[in-house]
Each structure stands twice: as C-alpha cells, then as structure tokens.
Specification:
By secondary structure, the chain is an all-alpha fold. Helices cover 70% and strands 0% of the residues.
C-alpha cells in the first residue's frame, strides 16, 4: 500500500497526469479497492486522531456537496469529473493516513516522493537533452515550455518545485545517510532546471515560499548550507539552460538541438556532482554538530503565521491584479520575459469567479459551472474551463458551504503539521514545506484537476496527519 501511494503519482504522470477520464477513473477505483483491502487487513483501518477525522470528514462532505451541486450545475460532464476526482483524493487521503504506522515508515515519504518527481521531470528534460534518443510529442500550446509528460507546463513547474524542496530537506537532514544526502543534493539540480524551463511564474513563487518555510521549520547550519548549495547549483543550471535555445525553448534545427542538449547534459552532470560533493563535505565538517530544536520565534505564534500565510497566498495575487491595469499579458511561450511580468489573463478568470460567487454566495453555481459562467461573462476571447485558483473556483461553484469545507480540510492538515512538527521537527519539516509549495501554487492554477500533481500533496497531507497520531511516540525520549 505504501508503495502504491508513493509511486502511484509518478506512474499516473505518464498518463497525462490523470487529467482525462480513463486514467482518473482507474486511479479512483484502485484507491478504493485498496481502502477495502485495508479495512479487511488491519485491525484499525480508520484513523483515531481528531485532525485526521476532521480532515477526512471535510473532504468526504466536500465530495458529497459536489455530488449535490451537480443537481443545479449547468453541465453534467464536468460535475461528474469533479466528483470522481474528489473521490480519488478522499480514498488516497484515507490510505495515506493509515498506511504509515511507525516513524521509520514515515521517513520514506520525503526521499521516495522526491525520486518520483525526479523521474517525471527528468523524463521531460530528456526530450531536450537527448532528442535523438528520447522522442516526445511537442505541444503547440506549450510554445517550447516543459510540459511532458503531464502535458501542462505549470503543473510540471510545480512538481519540480515540490521535488526541489524535498531534495533540499533530505540533503540537509543530519539523520539521513551521507550517500542519500549527497544524492538528494545532486537531484535538486535537474529539478531546478525543470522549474526554469517550465517558465511558470507561479512555480517559482511557490518554490521561494517553500524554501523559506523549510528554513523556518528546520533551522540550522546543515540545512541552511544544503539549501544554499541546492539553490546555487540549481541557479547555475537555469543560467546554462537560458543560454541554450534548443534546451530553453526547443528552438533551432535538429542538429542544433542535439548539440545544445549534449552541452546541457554535461553541465547538469558536473553541477549535480559538485552539489553532491559539497553536501558530503558539509556533512563531514558538521559531524556531531548539535542541530537546534527550537523553531524561529515567529513560529511560536501560529495565529500570526496563519495570517501572514493567508495574506501571501490570497492577497498577493489580488494585489497583482489590482496593479495590473496595463491590459497587457506577459510574453507567451518559453521566454525569460515572462518571469519579469505580472500581466496575466488569470485576473479576468478571477473576476468572473468572484462575480459568480456574488450571484449565489451560499451554494455557488454548481460543480463545473465556471466554464459556462466564463463563456457568458468573459471579456477576452479565450476558452477556459477553470478559474485557475482552487479557493476562488470553490467559492464560485460551491459557495460558502464548499469554501468552509475546503477550509476545514486545510485547517486540519495545518493543525496536524504543527503538532507533529513540534513532536519531531526532523521528520515533518520537509513534508510541511513541500506541501506549502503545492498550497501556494494551487491558489494560482488548476492543480486540483491534475491528479498526478495533487496526489503528491494528498500523500504529504496524509503523512502529516499520520504523524500527528504518532506524536506521543515521536516526542518520547529514546529508550534506555
């Protein structure tokens, strides 16, 4: 069961991320078959902790509300898709809470999920590094950005950012074997390159927040040094990619692309080896060094932290929308000009979503109704099916009831993260920071509709809820 949870998202990534009906339905059925087997196998197949029960109850109620909302939704197909997707996440969350019953098992979550992200992002990069060997479909809409195998560049950027934060944590974890720490540092290099060539501004912003959260949750010289090594080596990889058009944007002739790919491959190998060696040297120098157990002072005030997080996640995009009065969007495609602009059609999507919420604030327009509302109210000629923000789309389609259920789910996971982190910071810091990356990005894009990406977050959330149930064991002093 643990293997399915940890490897499943990477497998689903090679089926267009589970976005389409067939793979999504197979994943949902698989999840609930495993739930049934778990109920028959384990003496206690359901969680007993309050945060876990609240989180599961909120997601179950949200799924039920989606099903009810289909009765007044204008389109049956999107509503059914939403329901199957939510049931998939519900089954996966239940499995993720109950799958890990010991600390040693939870320790596997960070490195294995990081490895899965590396496999997916590495495959996407391979089409640029060795185009004559690895052939991939090129999407016109991607315009040269990294989109395979998920088929959506922003989702690829978000997955790479999550993987990078997990690798940064593992490489700075003094309790990990030296070889694993060095391998994690080396893996951060191609993941950073993946974030860059996705040209996803949301992924870059989420990555920055994730790194900051990681350093707040896991303060110390080793973690700071490992994160700095990963950021420097990853930054150099991004600079190298920016100088090679065949890698950055799939530009040039086939011969030029092959040459650029080989150069980039050599650069990645050198930087990865250097990052791994630097972390190994850092670990040897810090052998026996006591790591601080106390958090940053701000973390002792959870209300302040929560307020700042809400301000950043919700206020930042709205502020950007208010300031964006130029009427111009960022340059399209794989161009560094995108990264210095805040212009986006998202502000138009969010305006329509807020208007739909205002029309029926209690129950919303029904599951999958944003697409119809957009066609009716849009001011730009663009086909859009999602509001590109989970909280805003939830408010528009499911109203205050749906938004309250989503908030209950997030609150339960946040409470579990705080409790489990206080009991064992070394175990949960990376998971909490990586989940923050997804949380920021899902406020800016349609991650909820990309199961291969969101299932990573579900597994992380379930692991944190499981850790909260084990907090007495985690906080107990070693025997003897």
């Amino acid at each position: 069961m643990q293997a399915v949870l940890l490897v499943g998202p990477a497998v689903l990534a090679f089926r267009a991320g589970g976005f389409f009906d067939g793979p999504r339905a197979v994943a949902a059925v698989t999840a609930w078959v495993l739930v049934a087997l778990s109920a028959l196998t384990f003496a206690q197949p359901f969680p007993g902790g309050t945060p876990a029960r609240v989180g599961l109850g909120a997601l179950a109620a949200l799924s039920a509300w989606v099903a009810i909302g289909a009765s007044w939704a204008p389109l049956g197909g999107p509503a059914q898709d939403d329901l199957i997707r939510d049931l998939l996440y519900l089954g996966a969350l239940l499995l993720a809470i109950t799958a890990w019953r010991r600390r040693e098992e939870l320790r596997r979550v960070e490195p294995v999920l990081a490895a899965g992200a590396l496999v997916v992002v590495g495959y996407g990069l391979a089409g640029r590094l060795v185009p004559g060997i690895v052939e991939q479909e090129t999407s016109i809409s991607a315009a040269g950005r990294l989109d395979q195998p998920l088929t959506y560049w922003n989702a690829m950027g978000a997955l790479a950012a999550i993987g990078f934060v997990l690798c940064a944590r593992v490489s700075g974890d003094t309790a990990r074997p030296l070889a694993l720490r060095a391998a994690a540092a080396a893996s951060a290099v191609p993941l950073a390159a993946g974030v860059y060539v996705s040209f996803s501004r949301g992924a870059l912003a989420a990555l920055a927040v994730g790194v900051v959260v990681l350093l707040l949750l896991a303060p110390g010289r080793q973690q700071l040094g490992a994160a700095a090594i990963a950021l420097v080596a990853g930054g150099l990889a991004a600079v190298a990619a920016s100088l090679l058009p065949g890698v950055e944007s799939l530009a040039g002739s086939a011969a030029d692309r092959r040459a650029d790919g080989l150069v980039m491959l050599a650069v990645l190998l050198v930087l990865a080896a250097a990052a791994g060696g630097a972390v190994a040297r850092l670990a040897r120098e810090g052998a026996g060094e006591r790591q601080p157990a106390e958090p940053a002072r701000a973390l002792k005030r959870p209300g302040l932290v929560a307020a700042l997080a809400l301000l950043l996640i919700i206020g930042a995009p709205l502020a950007a929308a208010a300031l964006d009065d130029s009427g111009e969007n960022a340059p399209e495609g794989a161009t560094a000009g995108r990264l210095s602009e805040v212009g986006s059609n998202r502000y138009d999507y969010w305006e329509v979503a807020l208007g739909q919420f205002a029309d029926d604030p209690l129950r919303g327009g029904g599951s999958g109704s944003f697409e119809v509302e957009w066609r009716r109210e849009r001011e730009i000629d663009e086909a859009v099916g999602d509001a590109h923000s989970l909280p805003l789309e939830t408010a528009a389609e499911l109203g205050l009831i749906g938004l309250a259920l989503l908030a209950a789910l997030v609150g339960a996971v946040a409470l579990a993260a705080r409790r489990s982190w206080r009991a064992d910071p070394s175990l949960t810091s990376g998971m909490a920071a990586a989940l923050t990356v997804w949380g920021v990005h899902t406020c800016l894009d349609w991650d909820w509709e990309m199961p291969a990406l969101t299932l990573v977050a579900v597994v992380l959330a379930g692991a944190l809820l499981a850790a909260e149930e084990l907090r007495d064991e985690l906080s107990a002093p070693p025997a003897g």
